[in-house]
Amino acid sequence: MTTPSTPQAVQSCHELLLWLIPQLDKFPRVRRFTLGERIEAGLLEVLELLVEAAYSRKKEASLRRANLQLEVVRHLWRLAHELKVMATRRYEHGATLMDDLGRQIGGWLRSQTPVQPQP
Question: Given pLDDT bands bounded at 50, 70 and 90, which one contains residue 115?
């Protein structure tokens, strides 16, 4: 359950993990403990960085690291699909959730950067 002060990106990352972890459990054993583990750990790190940003005065560094880590997870997710570890529909759903999270992080990051007036 989200509280009014919980940023949407934190909640979305939590929900992505809730959906994703059971999907990773379905990976074949040979991929679960390599690729699956990296995907799960990477997304858990994104969640940690987003929570850190939510409670920090200076959010930009944490948000940039979260965005970078999410990009790594996206590549690992795509690699898992290319190795035929999951069905295309599952891949597409996960990719959509990750893209949505990336947009939220990007929007949050832009809101932290003051707009420079054009001369």
Answer: low
pTM of the model: 0.88
- The answer to whether residues 64 and 109 touch, using CB atoms and an 8 Å cutoff, is yes
Query: What tokens were used for 106?
Result: 């990007």
Domain boundary assignment for the chain: 8-111
What does CATH list as the number for 8-111? 1.20.1440.60
C-alpha–C-alpha distance, residues 112 and 119, integer Å: 21
Signed CA dihedral, 85, 87, 90, 94: sign only:
positive
- Supply φ then ψ for residue 14, to 5 degrees: -60, -45
Kindly give, in sequence order, each residue whose CB lies less than 8 Å from that of residue 40, ignoring residues fewer than 6 positions away: 17, 20, 21, 24
